[in-house]
Structure formats: structure tokens, C-alpha cells
Amino acid sequence: MGNIHYYIFLLVAIIVAFFIIKRVASCLVKTAVIVVVVAILAYVYFFLL
User: Fold this and answer.
1) What are the C-alpha distances in Å from 6 to residues 19, 20, 30, 40, 49?
2) pTM as predicted
3) Angle value at C-alpha 44, between 23 and 9, nearest 5 degrees
């Protein structure tokens, strides 16, 4: 059950970050931030779980 809550939290965090970036930043900055977030999530998934 702990993993389900963890993934729900990550999903909510990504959605909130997406909306904040969408309102504040330009397209190039959004793309760079999304790439960084995906890289961090991939690192967490493959090395910490």
C-alpha cells in the first residue's frame, strides 16, 4: 500500500508543477523543467526503489 500512496503523491506533484510552470514560464523553460523532472523520477524509480 505504501507504494501506491507514493506514486499518487508523485503524480499529484507532477500535475501541480506542470500547472505552475504553464502559468509562469515560457515554452523552452517548460521543456527543460519537464526533462529534469522526468530524469529525477527515472533515477528514483531505478535506483531508490
Assistant:
1) 20, 21, 24, 15, 11
2) 0.47
3) 50
Are 30 and 21 within 8 A, CB to CB? yes
Supply the DSSP string of 17-45, one letter for each residue: HHHHHHHHS-HHHHHHHHHHHHHHHHHII
- Nearest-angstrom CA–CA distance, 15 and 49: 22
- Tens-digit pLDDT profile for residues 5-16: 778 888 888 888
d(CA 9, CA 13): 6
Confidence at residue 1, expressed as pLDDT on a 0 to 100 scale: 54
